[in-house]
Amino acid sequence: MPPTTHQPSAARGFAFAFVGMVFLSCNYISVKYCLDREGNGFNPETLTVIWMGAATLFAFLWVIGRRQVSELPLAGATLGWMVGLGVCNGAAQLMAWQGLNRLDPSMASFMGRFAPVMAIFMGATILHERIRVVEWYAIALMIAGGLLTTLAPTHNAPVLSWLGIILSLASAFLFAMQLLLAKKNGHGLAVGVMIFYRVGVAAVIVTVWALAARKLDFSHARPDQWAVLIGGAFIGPFLSYVCTFHSYRFWDMARSSMILTLQPLVVIPLALIVFGTRLTTWQYAGGFITIAGGVWLAVIHHRAQEDPIEVIGEEEPSGSAQPADR
User: Fold this and answer.
1) Shortest CA distance to 254 belongs to which of 105, 120, 89?
2) Looking at the domain assignment, is residue 52 inside a domain?
3) Under 8 Å CB-to-CB from 118, ≥6 apart: which residues?
4) What's the CA gap between 33 and 29, in Å, rounded?
5) Who is most buried in 10, 22, 208, 325, counting CB within 10 A?
């Protein structure tokens, strides 16, 4: 199918990217709300099973709506790489929500900004992509901000905070690995098909894990937590992807990455409103330094891209980086 022609539009590109970023930011709030607190809610394993299962249903309905069901059967190496993508996603989801269970949503969101940095290092190591000197400066700024955030005095118990940070960074590593797998092995696949395998295989993996660990427990969640979790699965790992991928049709991916980097600016006020939680001044300072480094890195990549802006049609190349669907 030939690509659909669209006139590049900064306003439309910004609108879709911004809405996608806001929806993605809601992940931290909806999941934190549904996690077990004082005997009410889901444990991280059960939550991830429902989260990925619901996202798989929404992705399948999307594939049906796009008339791409015939493209779902895969074979050979392509099937193997897509299964690998789903396995990475399942492990990343489990670690992300285990980390969030121990951290303030704002802190977890700051830690998630390191996924693009890890993706750059993987690209340099595995794909032999060159890291420019100016990129090292931006990365160093992000690391400095991350160190300030993690080493600053905290309101939380030190053991829980450090364990949450380690789990969040491990999750970011696995999300970065997904970007590499998609870029290296996802050429020719429709975006909807990739998303279906990404969440569908993850749903199977986390279900098997939860059953084996005897962690599957639906008995403690309130009706409102069920509603928030299902609604969050629609908004976060599904609808945010639709908006973000659609933004690529109107402006380049680097500009959308700049918007996604600002995610903590949405999470911070939402966490304060919903949970009444806040970080220390030094933790916020480190977080904003990390954001500044992330925006700088996105600007560098944007300036490195050729003009005019590449416009992506109905079937976006699967090599484009996927946003972390937390």
Assistant:
1) 120
2) yes
3) 172, 173, 176
4) 6
5) 325
- The residue type of 41 is G
Classify the phi-psi angles of 128: left when phi > 0, otherwise alpha if psi is within -120 to 50, otherwise beta: left
Handedness of CA 68, 70, 75, 80 (dihedral sign): positive
Q: Give Cβ neighbours of residue 82 (< 8 Å, ≥ 6 apart).
A: 74, 186, 189, 194, 197, 198, 201
Cβ neighbours of residue 326 under 8 Å, at least 6 residues apart?
24, 27, 28, 31, 93, 96, 112, 171, 175, 236
Query: Within a domain: residue 323?
Result: no
Residues linked to residue 35 through DSSP beta bridges, in sequence order: 42
**Could you tell me if residue 321 is inside a domain?**
no
* pLDDT score for 5: 42
Of the two residues 129 and 19, the one the predictor is more confident about is 19
- Give the number of C-alpha atoms closer than 13 A to the C-alpha of residue 193, restricted to the C-beta side: 22
**Number of domains the chain is built from:** 1
Is residue 279 domain-resident? Answer: yes
Q: Specify the pLDDT at position 155.
A: 56
* Number of Cβ within a 10 Å radius of residue 31: 27
Task: Give the bridge partners for 37, in sequence order.
Answer: 40
What pLDDT is attached to residue 126?
72
Between CA 326 and CA 194 the distance in angstroms is: 17
